[in-house]
Amino acid sequence: MKALDKRLFFLLNMAQRKLFNHVDKVCEDALDTSVTQLAALLYIVKHAGCLQKEVATALSLNKSAVTGLIVRMEKKALLERFVSDEDARAIKLYPTPTGVQKTLELMPFIDELNSTFDEEFSDEEMQTVLKFLNFIIKKF
Question: What sign results for the dihedral spanned by CA atoms 124, 130, 133, 138?
Answer without folding.
Answer: negative
